Amino acid sequence: MKNTLQNTYNFIFEGSLINEILEISKIHDFKEGDIIIDFNENIKNMPLMLTGAIKILREDFDEGELLLYFIEKGDTCAMSMQCCLGNAKSEIRAIAETDGQLILIPVAKMNEWLGKYATWRNFVFNSYNNRLKEMLTTIDHLAFMNMDERLLNYLLEKSKINTSNQIKKTHQEIAYDLNTSRVVISRILKALENKGKIKLNRAYIELL
DNA sequence: ACATTAATTGTGT
DNA sequence: ACACAATTAATGT
Q1: Would you say the C-beta of A172 is within 7 Å of strand C?
Q2: Residues A91-108: tens digit of each pLDDT
Q3: Whole-model pTM above 0.85?
Q4: What residues have CB less than 8 Å from A189, skipping those under 6 apart?
């Protein structure tokens, strides 16, 4: 674990901070499909991603789930930070997209480090900015893009997080994340295939 | 190896 | 959106 931590964060945090993290924090392994955080849960730790990826969902008016963004190695969840600081309950649900592990940092330490380490402050600040930007992007997509652009975007994001052109998801699961119906996904996917952008197979999709 | 079932995907209305 | 056809994977015998 020390190696993984250093590989991912060595260029962001100074050595003394890395050591403190190693001392105080607990590591948490998760498997694909695990619910990391659920709605209305109290957050007592702040997560730092080591490996794998997690998707952040928001529940919609009609029992629908809508994907906000993915987080991966080197990221943290801005939502959970906000919950930590404000002592609030979670407004979102976090589900593991792949197997992986993360580091749990107690709220007290997180606050302490904000004053103690400039690199930590920068990290938290930057994470906030990045998440906010991503949220704006997805909001733009929701408001102004049609479904095939959203879908293409989704596929690109996914291939990024598992560093593979093979996306192993069923049309149904994709439809869930984008909060639409499976048939719509199937039709758009087929259109994309005809345009030569992707290759369609059973239970997985290949980007070209 | 074969038949049966379930899951995934394609298409027409 | 719905219904159903077609195709493929999974399971039991």
Answers
A1: no
A2: 899 999 999 999 999 988
A3: yes
A4: A151, A171, A198, A200, A205
